[in-house]
Request: fold
Amino acid sequence: MRSRHWHILGAGSIGSLFACLFDKAGISCSLLLRDGDPALTQTTRRIQLRAGGLTSEHSFPVTSGAHAAPIHYLLVCTKAYDLVDGLAGLQPWLAPNAVVVLLANGLGYQQTVAARWPQLAVFSGSTTEGAFREAGQRVLRAGRGTTWIGGRGTRDAPDWFSDWEAIDARCGWTEDIDTVLWRKFAINCAINPLTALHRCRNGALAEPGLADEVRALCLEIAAIGQAAGQGEAVAGLYRSVMEVVAATADNRSSMLQDVLAGRPTEIGFLTSFLVATADAQGIDATHNKALLAALQPAIHPVS
Ligand code: KPL
Reply:
């Protein structure tokens, strides 16, 4: 009999996917909404998961932090720019030593969380699962990926990780989550802003004109990574990026989806963080700075 109950903050496509995978594995979980969210008038949410031609239906309790307290196991799948505020809103309802797994794109918020909540057991994750919301609460699992979780200074997987091993997904524990996060960050820096700028699917980055831009960006990102002590994460970056481009050719990147939906983007936790890292190391970031400048009209459209 399992006794752990996971709360999921951020029921977008990835949060919904993991909620459904937990539910399928018999692991209890609920969806956390912020105080004042109009959806709190519902007590349950039904999510349909379409995967491999099959559709399954899942029903989850919907709750606010106050009603969920004390929260022992929290999975945060918000956008990077919502993560710190989301966690701050839940802070009063977290049990001392609560386990918090952060599964968002980008870099930068991890340091903020560690500095602000040193008492929490914070872990980070990185996933290449592909999911998107087809309509309403219907989520399509577009591609199976791998999810890595780890925490600084935690060599062996804690007991709670057995929940992740029980779900129908490739999940691994890593003692070097920083390298995993940096590698995904570098890949996202090469793909997401360019696809948002050119409003193209990932596959278009393999076409002649754009592939040269990707190569120039990768060279620069790799040099910045090297200078920041992340040589292992950026080794063979262009090849890795092109593999992801091929594997996700039909996808719209998350940043392009944000731009098309008129939402804020995660640029502050991708290219802006990269450029700040380059400046701190005294490394050239001409291509990424130009990309950041070119993107401004797309990410802050004048209405
Ligand atoms: O992680 C992604 C994203 O869009 O955020 C990639 C891997 C680029 C897939 O689209």
Q: What stands out?
A: The pocket of ketopantoate is lined by residues 105, 188, 191-192, 202, 244, 248, 251, 253-254 (CB under 6 Å). Residues 180-298 form a domain with the N-(1-d-carboxylethyl)-l-norvaline Dehydrogenase; domain 2 fold (CATH 1.10.1040.10). DSSP finds twelve helices and eleven strands in the chain.
